[in-house]
Amino acid sequence: MTLEIVLFVIFALVCLVSGILMVTRVNPVISALFLVVNFGSLAGLYLTLNAQFIAVAQVIIYAGAIMVFFLFVIMLINPEHEKRFLEYKPQLKIFAVAIAVLVFLQIAYIILFSKPSEGVSREVAASVKAGTIEQIGRELFTKYVLPFEAVGYLLLSAAIGALVLAKKKFK
Amino acid sequence: MNIDSIISDLIFIKPEIAIAATLVLIVLVDLISPKSKTALPYISLLGIAIAGVFVVQQFGTAEFAFKTSLSSGMFAADDFGSFFKIIVLLASVFVIFFSISSSEIKSVNDHLGEYYTLMFGMILGMFFMVSASDLVLIFISIELLSLSSYVLAGFVKNTVRSSEASLKYVIYGGVSSGIMLFGISLIYGLTGTTNLYEINSIIQIQSFPHITFLIATLFITVGLGFKISAAPFHFWTPDVYEGAPLPITAYLSVASKAAGFAVLIRFIKITFINSIDHHGNWELLNIIDWRSIIVLLSILSMTLGNFTALWQDNLKRMLAYSSIAQAGYMLLGIAVLSDQGLTATMIYFIVYLFMNLGAFFVVMLIANEIGSEDIEDYKGLGKTMPFLGVTLAFFLLSLAGIPPTAGFIGKVVLFIALVDANMIAVAVIALLNTVVSLYYYVRVLKNLYLVQVDEEKPVIKLSFANGFVIILLAAPILIFGVYFTPIVNFAKNSINILGF
């Protein structure tokens, strides 16, 4: 067994266990914390696939920014009320399970039977290179420099807009 | 692509640089001297003037900037883009005039810096939109426009209802841009590129699963349909137009619609074109039946917009539905799929700019005085506000398409293009829709002039500056209604989309 497979098994196990724990917890805060663990182990899986940039982005954006946002929302709404959400409507549980099974079957079908990667004959070396931060940085500052600058102004507008909305007072 | 070519390409985005620099300048001025709020509109106007000079200078160029390969780039500097930039800039100038005299904007004097900054965010987004030839840049610029307009729509009134409108806008907008992004990712998955020109050259030689491609392009059309508020993606329009401050409503109805149309036209023409014959008819690849899709959208927009407008009692809401119907008329010009139809749409846009902004401005000035936008409250205003009454009547008649206003010319050019393309049935539906629209426009006139009011109302005086702005808006409608050669030539000279 190479180190790569060992790492894969470890990350996959952490991912699976934290995923199951996340959906079975009653307290939403604990659920959210298990989701952070899940995101972290996913980042590890990306690393074993040579996708450095996606791994870093996963940690910064999902495990960092989006989870903080999640926790804030949980803090601001009343979790006591939401806890009993499924108790009021037990049908929702069946619906959720059905959707999950459907998605699982779909992914299983794609991986096992339809073989979508058969037609793709890219060299592994090229895809390894494409995932590096250096390559993405090069693309970002040459080919995509104009959209990159536009994103800068997008963030400036968003920040100013958020300030305006936050300072608003309701009558 | 090296640093030298990036630097030399900056010359093509001079207008955008001017707008971006003004945006930063407004932020800085507002931070350094918070007392000088009154200077902000003038700084904005100066920035727009400089950008306008650059845009006019750029007429005649047809080149790719920020090349991604030998024959395609991120940004297409062409006359078609410059035309829509002119429309956006003209609308911005008028909306800044509106903002100066709007009582709604005056009530948030503390936040004037943010107001103009976000407005320039919108302009920058629209500038990139109309020239973008890559789906990445298109998506980012649409987001830049949308995010700024979400905030501006809920900027002024601190009431729950106005914030609800703003929230509705965010949710509908978020969903539609999510759908659009999904469509873009499907297209990228199929073709391996996001550049419109490269997609075109790939789909010309390679065939793709038809249903996937159809879904992907329809998803992109949803995102653009939201921006131009065409039915059935129009549900946000009445609420947002009613809740937003009036200058922003006017701006959304003209400038942001123009940018959406520019992207839609560029997307359809560049991505799906096979060849153009010498009559200027576009031979599109028959992957997707664009004509049927656009005709369907257009008939839905016209009919829904016009018939729903019949029941509206709030003038802002009525104008919102009327702008949905107007988007339907303008879509017809694209459905023709020829340079003649495109010219007709562009002529209609010039006319629509003046008449729609004019109608909103007069409604705003009347609302400043009587504090209401209800059609019932307009009874007898024709006598107390003679100038505003006459000009409102004039703008509304132009929207309905009555000669000798320019609205008539816009519709005639459009119908000629339809008849030339043998789309008689569609032309008849559009004509019948015009008749329906006449009812609700004239209903306002009835309240202004024909209804007897018992109580005596004082005559209200209009400031000289506002009267001047109204004349600036009304004069082109009157002049172009009689002497329309200049706008026809302007539109004809500006249909050159890069690559053909």
Structure characterization notes:
- The complex is a heterodimer of chains A (171) and B (500).
- Chain A has helices at residues 3-24, 28-48, 52-76, 79-83, 85-88, 91-114, 124-130, 133-141, 145-166.
- Chain A is 81% helix and 0% strand.
- The N and C termini of chain A lie far apart (67 Å).
- Chain A is an all-alpha fold.
- In chain A, helix 1 (3-24) packs antiparallel against helix 2 (28-48).
- Chain A is globular and about 55 Å long.
- Chain B has 500 residues and is mainly alpha-helical.
- Chain B has a domain at 289-500.
- Chain B is globular and about 75 Å long.
- The mean pLDDT of chain B is 90.
- The A-B interface holds A 142-147, 150-151, 153-154, 156-158, 160-161, 163-165, 167-171 and B 1-2, 6, 13, 20, 23, 27, 65-66, 68, 74-75, 111, 114, 117-118, 121, 124-125, 128, 134, 136-137, 140-141, 143-144, 147-148, 150-151, 154-155, 158-160, 163.
Low-confidence stretches of chain A: none
Order of helices and strands of chain B: HHHEEHHHHHHHHHEEHHHHHHHHH
What is the spatial order of strands in the main beta sheet of chain B?
Answer: 1-2
Strands of chain B, total number: 4
Q: Give the largest interface pair and sizes.
A: A-B, 23 and 37 residues
Oligomer: heterodimer
Taken as a percent bin, the fraction of beta residues of chain A is under 5%
CATH superfamily name of the largest domain in chain A? NADH-ubiquinone/plastoquinone oxidoreductase chain 6, subunit NuoJ
Q: Which CATH architecture of the largest domain in chain A is right?
A: Up-down Bundle
Distance linking N and C termini of chain B: 24 Å
Low-confidence region ranges of chain B: none
Strand content of chain B: under 5%
Largest sheet of chain A: none
Give average pLDDT of chain B, whole number: 90
Task: Give the overall form of chain B.
Answer: globular
How many helices of chain B? The count is 21
- The Cα radius of gyration of chain B reads 22 Å
- In the CATH hierarchy, the third-tier topology of the largest domain in chain A is known as Four Helix Bundle (Hemerythrin (Met), subunit A)
